[in-house]
Amino acid sequence: MIIRGFFDNVSHSKLMKQLWTLGIQDKNLLSILQKSLSSGIQGEGIPTKGTIQGGLISPLLANVVLNELDWWLSDQFETFSTSFKYSCRTSKIAAIKNRSNLKRFYIVRYADDLTIMCEDYETASKIKIATTKWLNEKLKLEVSESKTKITNLRTNYMKFLGFRLKTFKKGHKYVCNSKMSIKAFNKAVKKLKVQVIKVQRTNLAKEVNKLNSMILGLHNYYKVATHVNKDFSLIAFLVNKTLENRLKLGLNKQGHISKTFKKYYGKYNFKAYNVCKIRLFPIGGIKFSIPYSFIQTTCNYKASGRAEIHTELQNVNSNMFKYMLANPIRGQTIEFNDNTLSKMAGQQGRCSITKDQLKIGQLKCLHQTPKDLGGSDNYKNIVIVSSDVYKLIHEENERNQLVYIRRIGSSIRNKTALKKLNKLRKTIGNSKIMNISL
């Protein structure tokens, strides 16, 4: 079951009082927020309630005001405090479910768009009433009844942030299938067609690049939908018809293929469209990407959250950082040297290939894609390995390769390490090491 709450307008004076009560008491900041809220709207006048739809401060104010709601709802089940300290979260949730009358539900909120996931209609109805009452009494917020719905996901789709979600039975369990909402689908088709018309009228490379950025932006947002490839195949069919009709005289046989194109669309084999000698990104070139979650206890703004980050960094010897700061790599840019420090923390002081602990004076920082082949000094293109692994990457003589393999030990002889090693050897033009078992 799903409850969706869209919170109506609240007066500016009440909103400012709430911010003050929550501890936001910087008068300069409050003055800026007050001016933003009271900015005139063309054709509407000066508002006295709510925030501008799509305004820059709307998500900020929603997160500040509704933070208390998040914790109140979470404490009803998910983060409910128990006298017994359970070893893991799963055991705790199972115990709460089986040994108490607490109703199991979870919340997902983005700004003022809230979804509460329940197991049955009775629980959903009770939580809807309780949440509406709490918002009205505690935060003086009104809930839009017309936009607050209870939906059975086994029989109907629900809309959330431009997606349509529904559960389907798979084996002995239910899984969520997601796709673009109909409104978002139609909006995407319309925006892309309008941009194609702009390209036709102006014939400017700037507008072609804008069209590419729009396609990439849509892909990045909707790639977490499980059926996204079907949605964009249809969008491509509709938009490409307009593109061919409008730009049939302006299409080029050849076009510049950018680094971004190679990175995201190099493996696709769609029909190529070149406008102003620029290769267009394929609209249908998208596939589902798993939306990985993050550890909620990690937070830069709380002492307990920062402790998680510091604990991870303790795996790296502090003397290693001191050494790298005192001995920057000569001939490399400031960006490269800065990113090597970040990469060392990211690899937790271990070799990227063997996962062995690195030692001072016995490490090498290199580009995964060499700069002469188009590589950059950014974080993703840097890798840190031990000195022996570095030599093995560059060594062409088979007898010398065996010497380094013996020196490194068994950690280089698994399939994953060998694959990473050969990938780096390939980028510099060296042949693969086919067998390193001794």
What attributes does this structure have?
single chain; about 450 residues; alpha+beta; 4-stranded antiparallel beta sheet; 3-stranded antiparallel beta sheet; about 10% strand; disordered N terminus
Secondary structure: elements and pairs:
Elements: E1 2-6, H1 12-21, H2 27-37, H3 58-74, H4 89-99, E2 105-110, E3 113-118, H5 121-138, E4 150-151, E5 158-160, E6 163-170, E7 173-180, H6 182-202, H7 205-222, H8 228-247, E8 251-252, H9 259-265, E9 274-275, E10 278-279, H10 303-313, H11 318-326, H12 334-346, E11 363-367, E12 382-386, H13 387-394, H14 398-408, H15 415-427
Antiparallel strand pairs: 1-3, 1-4, 2-3, 5-6, 6-7, 8-9, 9-10, 11-12
Helix pairs in contact: 6-7, 6-8, 13-14, 13-15
| Overall radius of gyration | 28 Å
State the order of secondary-structure elements, H for helix, E for strand: EHHHHEEHEEEEHHHEHEEHHHEEHHH
The SS-based structural class is alpha+beta
Enumerate how many helices there are, as a single number: 15
Structure summary, number of beta strands: 12
Provide the helix percentage: 40-55%
Q: In percent, how much strand structure appears in the residues?
A: 5-15%
Strand order of the main beta sheet, please? 2-3-1-4
